[in-house]
Amino acid sequence: MTTSTEVRPTTTLPVAEAIQTRRSIRKFVQEPMNQDDLREILRLASLAPTANNVQPTRFAVIQSKDLQQKLQDVSYNQSQVTSAPAVIVVYSDMEDVLANAEQNFPASMGEEQVKTRAEGLRAQFGAQDVAQRGQWALTQANIAFGFLMLAARGKGYDTVPMLGFQPDKVKELLGLPEHVQFAGLLPIGKRDEEGFPHHRHNVDRITTFY
Ligand SMILES: Cc1cc2nc3c(=O)[nH]c(=O)nc-3n(C[C@H](O)[C@H](O)[C@H](O)COP(=O)(O)O)c2cc1C
């Protein structure tokens, strides 16, 4: 069994090293998440950019074994959901953005400006239906999902991104509204297995230079 000190660097990894050493991990060291690290990883992920700075990404953090077991039950029994000390659910909630549009603008703008900008935001997306703007918001949450994996790896943690779950059942379990859209589940902790080496297309296979 790998001990946590072997896999947890004392310093933050440079971005390239975090990318290079990230791999999907499905078996984790059995110890609770350090809560300061968890908050810092979430903070870093919250710095991901969004179009017009709309910020529709939301995180739900599950650290109860009981709830993790229920989550695993609706994730085709994938054992990484309970092996990890925590699972971060990443989703977009565009209706929350619109209902609280004023929060998207700094108070320093002044009350009038904030009101005008908030109305503008509601008008911009009001023309779309809930599913359409939800899908748009999901493209933003997906960026944060990527940031989250790399922020975790940069702080010496491991993850596995997951889309293998029943979205409606997860909403029911977490009490989330019907309209939210999931970027994915992210079990997180310290690796207790090596994972698989990267097997990827060559850059020339996937790139066209003009
Ligand atoms: C959006 C997304 C969804 C995924 N869903 C699952 C999943 O449900 N279960 C699982 O074991 N792995 C899942 N994976 C992990 C992939 O299998 C893995 O990323 C891929 O094989 C490359 O391996 P690596 O992450 O170790 O580089 C998912 C990956 C992504 C990006």
Provide a descriptive summary of the structure in words:
- The chain has 210 residues and is an alpha+beta fold.
- It has a single domain (34-194), classed as NADH Oxidase (3-Layer(aba) Sandwich).
- It is built from ten helices and four strands, in the order αααβααβαααβαβα.
- The chain has helices spanning 4-7, 15-21, 35-45, 65-73, 80-83, 94-99, 111-126, 130-154, 167-174, 203-206; strands at 57-62, 86-92, 158-159, 181-189.
- A four-stranded antiparallel beta sheet has the order 1-2-4-3.
- α2 (15-21) crosses α8 (130-154) and α3 crosses α8 (130-154).
- The longest helix has 25 residues, at 130-154.
- The protein is globular and about 55 Å long.
- The structure holds flavin mononucleotide.
- Flavin mononucleotide binds at residues 23-24, 26, 78, 160-164, 184, 195-196, 198.
- Residues 23-24, 26, 78, 160-164, 184, 195-196, 198 line the site of flavin mononucleotide.
Which helices and strands appear, and what pairs or packs with what?
Elements: H1 4-7, H2 15-21, H3 35-45, E1 57-62, H4 65-73, H5 80-83, E2 86-92, H6 94-99, H7 111-126, H8 130-154, E3 158-159, H9 167-174, E4 181-189, H10 203-206
Antiparallel strand pairs: 1-2, 2-4, 3-4
Helix pairs in contact: 2-8, 3-8
Bound molecules: flavin mononucleotide.
